[in-house]
């Protein structure tokens, strides 16, 4: 019982006491009749509301108060009501002795069960029982048992505005909206527990009044209820697919409308977790924006967006794809056996599940899914698990070969990136000797230790055993046969103390996949046979070049060198002979010979074992001393228009001429002469601009830099070597400069046209002069022609002499032909301008050479006596 209630009871008691005292004074006057008990308030039936507190006072109305005993209250069940026990607890009902010998019945909170008849009893003077009663009738006041003051019907539904009322006796209920009474109609139905609104619309918002009245008690109570129509949430925007990148921040909207504004939450489906509580995630419940500070692979999931308000809950799902860069987490090296299938598997993670391919290490081309076009043994299988973001690629090689052994690169790629990893396919195979098939036999001589080395290919490594004449060498305990190594290489060291060791040995290799045999020969080696032939090919006064044909050789025992010994014929002693060795295939040139001398030569070949016997004894004389050989320009012609190769200078204004030193033919070369003239070639004939020729001489060099040349111009270059005897024949090349910025207009057409104009002009003048002269000759016997007529009567030799003087050169050629000029010189041809020495022997007819040689030389060709050409001078 509350403190308040107790205070109220106390106040009430005091009030009653005061009233009682005032009554007492009145009653005392009329109290001298019957003793009786009086209950206050005095009404026989007392109506009291449930829940209120109450006091009834029972006062003996007797002549002598002292005779009253045993004053009690009895409840509606005739049980005596006890006084208030000591302590703080108030029972629902108790008695309390009040001043004036009265007994109060205290009811702290009236309940409907407490209704009924209560007796107050006492005995008077021990003889008389006094008794009186009072009836308590309870009633229930109007109370709102379920009538919330704010109610929220949902748009479109039927809704009962609740107004549940309790009262006893029963109340009547009616409704008002915004002050106007509501009648039951199509829209509203007044029900026991509330007002039914059919098909709630937003206009149904408003203030409703629920009014309860109890006719019996006259009680009237009103309740105002605020009705606000709610709208169920609708998700207006949520993409069905979202894409995030691993490691990056991410945001997604889920927008919803409704009244009141819906509250949004996001649920990660696989773990049924509201992400607002998760790390890295934030959710704005009002806007629906979900953000992830840094996306991880685990965020890949289906998410449910839930929009919730007072009117309901809706949800919608979306899938969040996390783009994960691929990573390869498994690629084991594999080992297979040749001929069988081998498969290498690569496993990768990533989102979307990466595509997996392979390629051979070091190549660009990747294998395509399925069977390869160019190698149908190879198949690439791919398997994707997009849900788990995993994929597997398997490269299958059917009927594997040794060549398949190697490194293979797995390539996993998706939208985000590409990952690589390299693994090894090892192909095992039985021992194999095919690489040793072409090897020569092993040679030994003079009991030299021989090493028969046997290497077996094979994976795993093969072990090797040796057999000789069908017996296992290991079991023979022959001290001349020693085995070093058991595989994959094994060397059989043979000490061939007797002939029988020169024989075949068998090397046998074995591994888990098989066995192979290889025969190896140990042969006895000898020095080479006689040289088959040695023929002089080119002669100069001081050198002879030979062609040598070697003796037959055995595989594995090549000729290492050729040697020649030579001496002058009249020296009978070979021990003082000179010697020279050449490695095979070099130019076999003997130098430093004396001119016009007869020599004896003999030849021998050398191999590993030693020098063979001397053979091919041969005599050969050198020609007499002469002008040097033609020097050889060291330029490669680039253009070759029919007969004349043209060397192209990389520059427009200069050119470096280089040449090789020719044989000096017995006298040292002291200088070179270079002549170069610009010119043009017209109708296949070379025309030189004589006045622009340059002639220079150089010493102690084999190159010359020509400068101040014109661009895009042809030059003919003549090069001659000189010694004490004279000039060599000229080497001639045509050189063309490139078109430069400084091109001097020597272009063919202009040269031609200007030359033609000059020619025509000169020709015209000459013709005029000739006609005038002819007229003069005929009429007055004067003029040049007349003089010539007179001169013609002299001897022809005088004309020859004049011609000779006019040429200004010593020419041992036949008298010049009446033609104006000899045709231009061809490259390598004999030069017209070459000053021919008196001593020049090479131009004289063969028979006139007073020499003992069996072979003659005309400067370009060596002729045998019968005139057959043996060799050609390479200087051509
Ligand atoms: C979410 O919605 C807001 C407001 O419409 C917009 O500004 C924002 O760009 C949206 N974010 C994403 C990730 O779509
Ligand atoms: C695979 O083989 C390669 C090359 O032979 C080697 O470098 C690598 O360590 C091997 N990997 C494994 C997992 O054995
Ligand atoms: C035998 O030959 C092999 C290969 O040519 C070589 O490696 C090895 O050292 C040789 N053995 C001897 C004893 O000379
Ligand atoms: C196989 O032989 C080679 C060459 O002798 C050697 O380097 C390699 O270690 C051997 N391999 C094994 C597995 O014995
Ligand atoms: C020539 O060879 C012999 C032996 O064959 C040698 O004694 C001599 O010194 C050699 N002469 C020259 C010039 O090399
Ligand atoms: C219900 C009940 O038993 N009432 C009795 C209580 O006692 C009085 C007399 O003491 C009787 O008159 C009632 O009938």
TrEMBL record:
- In the UniProt record, the signal sequence range is 1-31
Q: Which PROSITE patterns match?
A: FN3, IG_LIKE, PROKAR_LIPOPROTEIN
Which residues lie in Pro residues bias regions?
A: 813-825
Top-level lineage group: Eukaryota
Ig-like domain location is 35-137, 156-226, 233-321, 326-426, 431-523
What is the topology of this protein in the membrane according to its UniProt annotation? Single-pass membrane protein
Q: Where is the Fibronectin type-III domain?
A: 527-625, 641-741
Quick one: where is this thing mainly located? membrane
Among the entry's GO cellular component annotations, what is one? plasma membrane
Its subcellular locations are: Membrane
Regions of compositional bias (Basic and acidic residues) in chain numbering = 626-645
For this UniProt record, give its keywords in alphabetical order, as a comma-separated list.
Cell adhesion, Disulfide bond, Glycoprotein, Immunoglobulin domain, Membrane, Repeat, Signal, Transmembrane, Transmembrane helix
Q: Where is the composition biased (Polar residues)?
A: 615-624
SUPFAM superfamilies reported in the protein's UniProt record: Fibronectin type III, Immunoglobulin
Q: Where are the transmembrane segments?
A: 755-784
Q: Where is this region: Disordered?
A: 614-646, 807-851
Question: Might you name a Gene Ontology BP term for this protein?
Answer: cell differentiation
One Pfam match: fn3
Entry-linked InterPro entries: FN3_dom, FN3_sf, Ig-like_dom, Ig-like_dom_sf, Ig-like_fold, Ig_I-set, Ig_sub, Ig_sub2
CDD domains, alphabetically? FN3, Ig
Name of the protein in its database record:
Uncharacterized protein, isoform A
Organism field: Drosophila mojavensis (Fruit fly)
Gene designation: Dmoj\GI16146
């Amino acid at each position: 019982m509350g403190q308040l209630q107790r205070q109220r009871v106390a106040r009430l008691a005091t009030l009653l006491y005061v009233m009682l005292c005032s009554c007492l004074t009145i009653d005392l006057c009329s109290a001298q009749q019957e003793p009786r008990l009086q209950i206050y308030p005095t009404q026989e039936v007392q109506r009291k509301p449930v829940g209120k507190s109450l006091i009834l006072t029972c006062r003996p109305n007797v002549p002598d108060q002292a005779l009253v005993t045993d004053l009690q209250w009895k409840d509606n069940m005739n049980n005596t009501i006890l006084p208030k026990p000591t302590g703080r607890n108030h029972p629902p009902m108790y008695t309390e002795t009040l001043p004036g010998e009265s007994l109060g019945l205290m009811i702290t909170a009236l309940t409907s069960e407490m209704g009924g008849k209560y007796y107050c009893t006492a005995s008077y003077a021990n003889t008389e029982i006094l008794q009186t009663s009072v009836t308590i009738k309870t009633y229930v006041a109007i109370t709102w048992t379920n009538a919330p003051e704010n109610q929220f019907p949902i748009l479109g539904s039927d809704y009962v505005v609740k107004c549940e009322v309790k009262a006893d006796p029963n109340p009547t209920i009616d409704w008002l909206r915004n002050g106007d009474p509501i009648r039951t109609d199509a829209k509203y139905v007044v029900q026991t527990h509330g007002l039914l609104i059919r098909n709630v619309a937003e206009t149904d918002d408003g203030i409703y009044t629920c009014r309860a009245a109890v006719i019996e008690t006259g009680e009237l109570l009103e309740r105002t209820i605020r009705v606000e129509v709610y709208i169920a949430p609708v998700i207006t925007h949520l993409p069905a697919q979202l894409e995030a990148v691993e490691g990056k921040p991410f945001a997604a909207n889920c927008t919803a409308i409704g009244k009141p504004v819906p509250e949004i939450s996001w649920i990660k489906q696989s773990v049924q977790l509201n992400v607002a509580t998760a790390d890295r995630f934030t959710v704005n419940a009002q806007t629906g924006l979900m953000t992830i500070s840094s996306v991880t692979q685990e965020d890949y999931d289906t998410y449910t967006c839930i929009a919730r308000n007072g009117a309901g809950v809706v949800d919608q799902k979306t899938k969040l794809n996390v783009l994960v860069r691929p990573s390869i987490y498994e690629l084991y090296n594999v080992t297979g056996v040749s001929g069988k299938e081998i498969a290498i598997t690569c496993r990768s993670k990533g989102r979307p599940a990466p595509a997996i391919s392979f390629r051979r290490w070091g190549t660009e081309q990747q294998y395509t899914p399925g069977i390869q076009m160019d190698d149908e043994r190879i198949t690439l299988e791919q398997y994707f698990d997009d849900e788990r973001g995993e994929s597997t690629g398997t490269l299958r090689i059917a009927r594997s070969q040794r060549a398949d052994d190697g490194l293979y690169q797995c390539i996993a790629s998706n939208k985000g990136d590409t990952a690589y990893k390299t693994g090894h396919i090892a192909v095992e195979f039985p021992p194999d000797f095919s690489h040793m098939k072409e090897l020569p036999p092993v040679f030994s001589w003079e009991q030299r230790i021989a090493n028969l080395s046997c290497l077996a290919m094979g994976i795993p490594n093969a072990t090797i055993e040796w057999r000789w004449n069908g017996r296992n060498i290991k079991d023979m305990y022959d001290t001349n046969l020693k085995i070093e190594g058991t595989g994959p290489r094994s060397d059989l060291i043979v000490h061939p103390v007797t002939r029988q060791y020169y024989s075949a040995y068998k090397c046998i290799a074995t591994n888990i996949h098989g066995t192979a045999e290889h025969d190896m020969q140990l042969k006895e080696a000898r020095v080479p046979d006689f040289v088959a032939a040695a023929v002089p090919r080119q002669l100069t006064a001081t050198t002879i070049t030979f062609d040598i044909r070697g003796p037959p050789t055995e595989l594995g025992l090549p000729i290492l060198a050729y040697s020649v010994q030579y001496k002058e014929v009249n020296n009978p002693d070979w021990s003082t002979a000179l010697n020279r060795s050449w490695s095979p295939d070099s130019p076999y040139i003997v130098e430093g010979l004396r001119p016009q001398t007869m020599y004896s030569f003999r030849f021998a070949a050398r191999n590993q074992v030693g020098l063979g016997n001397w053979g091919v004894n041969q005599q050969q004389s050198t020609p007499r001393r002469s002008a040097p050989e033609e020097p050889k320009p060291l330029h490669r012609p680039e253009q070759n228009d029919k007969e004349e190769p043209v060397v192209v200078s990389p520059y427009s204004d200069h050119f470096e001429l280089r040449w090789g030193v020719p044989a000096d033919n017995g006298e040292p070369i002291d200088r070179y002469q270079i002549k170069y003239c610009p010119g043009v070639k017209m109708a296949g004939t070379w025309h030189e601009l004589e006045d622009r020729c340059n002639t220079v001489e150089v010493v102690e060099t084999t190159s010359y830099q020509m400068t101040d040349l014109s661009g895009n111009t042809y030059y003919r270059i003549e090069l001659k070597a000189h010694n004490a005897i004279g000039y060599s024949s000229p080497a001639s090349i045509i050189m063309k400069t490139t078109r430069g910025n400084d091109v001097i207009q020597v272009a063919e057409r202009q040269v031609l046209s200007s030359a033609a104009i000059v020619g025509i002009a000169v020709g015209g003048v000459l013709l005029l002069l000739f006609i005038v002269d002819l007229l003069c000759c005929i009429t007055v016997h004067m003029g040049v022609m007349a003089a010539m007529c007179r001169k013609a009567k002299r001897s022809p030799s005088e004309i020859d002499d004049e011609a000779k003087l006019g040429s200004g050169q010593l020419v041992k050629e036949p008298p010049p032909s009446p033609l104006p000029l000899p045709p231009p010189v061809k490259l390598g041809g004999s030069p017209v301008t070459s000053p021919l020495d008196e001593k020049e022997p090479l131009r004289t007819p063969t028979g006139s050479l007073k020499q003992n040689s069996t072979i003659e030389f005309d400067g370009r060709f060596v002729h045998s006596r019968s005139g057959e050409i043996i060799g050609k001078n390479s200087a051509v």
